[in-house]
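subagent[fold] <- orchestrator: predict structure for attached chain, return tokens only, no commentary.
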Amino acid sequence: MSHSELMKEREQEISIPVYSRGKQVDTLVAVSGSQPVRIKEGMQFTDSFGIHPAQTTREYGTPLTVEATLMTDSTNIVLQFAKGEVILNWDRREDMLRVRHPVTKQPFDLPGKGAVPAGRWHHLEWIIAEDVMRVLVNGEERFALLGNYRGLQGKIGVRTGWRANLSVGSLHIEQHIGAEEPTTGTDYRAVPHLSSFIGCILGAMSYCNRYAEEIELLGGIGYWFRPILPQEPLDNRFSAEVQELLKPFGLEVRYLAAYEETELDVFQFIEQSLEERQALFGYFGEQRGYAAVIGTESNRLRKASPVGDIEMTDMKDVVELFAVRPDIEALPREKVMTAFRWAAEHGKKSMSHLESAWLAALETTEAASSQLQAAALADRRRQAALYLRNCLEAVGGTTLAEQLESAARSYELAGSTWSTAAELLAADTPSEAGGFVSKAVAAETEGARVLGGTAAALAGKKRLEGLRYWGYSCISQHNTFKGLADYYRIPGSDAWILGASGRPFAFAVHERVNVHDICLPIPEHHFIRLFANLGLAIHGVEGAGKDEAYRRMLESAWDQARAAIDDGSACFGRSVDFDRGEYSMIVGYDQDGYYTHGWHGPSRKSIPWNMYGLGQCPCLQCTTRRTDWRTEGPVKSVCLCDTCQRTIKYGPALQPQSEGEVRLYWAKLSDPADDWTIVRDALQFAIAYVEPDGPWASPEMHTGIQAYDRLIRALEKGTMDGWYMGLHANGWQECRKLVLEFLREAKRRVGGGPQLMVAFDAAIREAERLQRCFAKLYEMFPWMQPFGPIPDTERRYAGAELMREARKHEAAAIRTYRELLQCLDQEHVARTI
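subagent[fold] -> orchestrator:
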């Protein structure tokens, strides 16, 4: 198929039939933004950023089964429903199966479960019943999750991402008949567990679509840290304190003790909870433990035990009740902070009592009967140590990690010592067990002390809630500006906010052409100053230095950034987690370093202050890339800028450096400039930027007409790398579209006389022509292109010819900007007289 035929095919609407029980019931339609084409088996499309899914025209509801036959040439086979996704060959880590929950969007990552061979057809089956979700690949179950999926509605979608071409052969959707909802109760059930209380909690978690590993949940609610007295029932009661401990896990718990006088009696509490479909369970005495309350009948309760037995019981048997419903889940740091604080406070209060109770019991004739309690303590303290080590990522910094490891060793020692005490009790030598009991309690006391200090340090960690990297643009500075605007609720469309910065007007080509966009020496600091016109006072530290001067500059920047974050001010910077020129938000700090939100999401670990500018993004793929930099990474056509060439030769910096560049900023709300000033400053920059001898000229970079000449020459000679062509075409077409929309909005905002309106129309007309040229260029070279020289000579020359046309419109656009700027000044003078 020729290039012109391919373009014509892509303009058509491409779809395949959707079947149910052998009959066509719908169509799966691919949008034009994914460049779809028909193939013999169905259809094929691509989509760099995963924002153009093919979707059904109808919505479907649970329970249902979705079956699709799919093939990728590399990565990202993605099936969508409601808020959920199933991803095979994920671009971040191809062996990982990533599943997003269809109710909450919570991601679940399963290493080793997500890889399928490229270039082959695969059968993906997603079964969503009312109480369980299953994912099967080629008939093999790779994931299953209990939950509450009743009543979900949404379209079915298929998408891809990164550098993949996805083929869709078939899609089958079967809706099933759901079970009738109970009219006077719920379908909440506890799950089987040695502790009936924990079984009820685990059942409530899945019923409310909240998920945590059992060791994390039980550590978070203090189960591993609780004391057990001699001869005490192992399923000891938690009572009302569990309310606060479960809250960070996204569960709101209401508690009622039947023996206390309250305004709400037991029957009212139960009826209200069941009517609101809450997970309801209670304690029914030492012999019968905890059970789910699933309904009422003639003033009696229908309850289900964790093993599934259903029986009726009288209201008077209720000792205490818990009603659970979903709430906002806390950050991992807040979860562990709550758990550590509880363990420290509870340990401080109870350790001396625990020791005295055990030593007193060991002097009795029934001491040996406490062997089970000692063994249970041994197991729980070993689990506490494992839980604490699992919390290392959540606490972040190096210092806190060392504290946490110290606490884990204390509880590990307590576990082994309690185990020895249990063995001595089993051997009926309680007198020898006393010393080990004291030693175990001492170890627990030390562990609790360390956890108290860790909790206090975590409480000192500062995070700015609501400050987020925007993430939809291919230009990191755009995403940062939009994140700032959202944080401060600055009004205006995306085009107005980003156009005000001047960044969309900046068209440039490096002298060596095949250079990453973040490595171009464009005037980023000037974009920040123009962006401040929208109503921000932006301050920062900018500069470069060596040795002590560099260290002082970096220390000053972080001191001021910490003070700004303490004041609630948004911080951002260049190269704070990615090396070279990417921008990211700085959303918080702790005693070891700073936390960011950028291309790879929010950082869970802090980045040390002295590692600024060294590409220390803590996500999995970036961590791997730093240690295996010669063989791992998506870019196989190396950027030709000096910095990237040095990295290829010597590898990434893994230790603090003695020299570098700092660009760190913080912003506060200020009085915005008027619309006239915003438009004038953006146009002044656009005019000055294209001057070959202007203030933004650089020997390594071409702008304006010279940039077109350099690009045309590279396309015609075949020296333009395909990967970089797709990368730049993506950014150029985005910027040209933003410029056009900015000028249209500027015309509406500024208003004015006929002469000014004519000038606006002329500028908008040329911007439209430029936008069309670059949209066509992006159709020819969509992101991502294959690495290496562009083999299609016809396409290269067609691209060069298109850029000759754009060159003509660029020159005309600059003329119209000058005329528009002159009219703006004249209109402004006339208004102020």
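orchestrator: received. Logging for downstream: Confidence is low (pLDDT under 50) at residues 6-10, 630-634. The CA atoms of residues 86 and 99 lie 5 Å apart.
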